[in-house]
Write a structure and sequence with these properties.
The chain is mainly alpha-helical and about 200 residues long. The chain has helices at about 10-15, 25-30, 45-65, 65-80, 80-95, 100, 105-120, 125-130, 130-135, 140-145, 145-160, 165-175, 180-195. The longest helix has 19 residues, at about 45-65. It is globular and about 45 Å long.
Length: about 200
């Protein structure tokens, strides 16, 4: 697929994390980009809730001033791909600081989610079934915690979805501007968690 994809196909860790501890809500949030319109009604109730939550998180992120600031920092260098890269940076810093927000480690969180994905495999949309085993076996959620793991995710994305991305350049930009990007990401997480914690 050569056309640019919706940037929110990419921040899987943040979506799953913001689903709380309910397995079906996590799965629904994970597959949200692959379920269009009223098709969410065809899923179990909690999974459908997760799909709707995914859309609300996307709307919050798209209209969030902190994320807009992050994208404006990226835009001179990355143009229309700024949203995609911002999402990847957000997942990276959520992974780096995961114990700040969670009572369990990223390793255990990811392992639990992978088990849920396999248990509810029959409910996954066909496109998700097409990549879920690779997603699990390469431990994509856990790999977000390091720059090298983030680069691997970018390389997978470049190969399968967005050939125009340059993983080396994206990682170099991250390292050059790490403090500014990290601060913006942490501000965003404080805002999004506060907004959705009651939901």
């Amino acid at each position: 697929m050569l056309k640019i994809i919706n940037s929110h196909n990419l921040n899987y860790l943040a979506h799953i994390f913001l689903s709380g501890n309910h397995p079906q809500i996590q799965i629904g949030n994970f597959i949200g980009d692959f379920v269009k319109g009223n098709a969410s009604q065809n899923f179990p109730k909690k999974m459908a809730f997760g799909i709707q939550l995914h859309r609300k998180i996307d709307h919050f992120t798209d209209t969030n001033e902190t994320v807009k600031t992050l994208k404006s920092l990226l835009r001179p260098e990355f143009g229309r791909y700024s949203g995609i890269i911002a999402d990847m940076y957000l997942d990276h810093f959520l992974a780096v600081h995961f114990r700040k927000y969670s009572k369990i480690s990223l390793h255990h969180f990811a392992f639990h989610f992978y088990m849920y994905a396999l248990f509810y495999y029959r409910h996954l949309p066909p496109r998700v079934k097409g990549f879920i085993f690779h997603f699990i076996f390469t431990n994509r959620l856990g790999k977000y915690a390091t720059a090298n793991g983030l680069k691997q995710s970018l390389e997978i994305m470049t190969y399968h979805k967005v050939p125009a991305l340059d993983p080396e350049k994206i990682i170099q930009f991250l390292e050059t501007n790490r403090q500014t990007i990290e601060n913006l990401c942490l501000i965003y997480f404080a805002e999004v968690i506060l907004h959705f914690q009651h939901k």
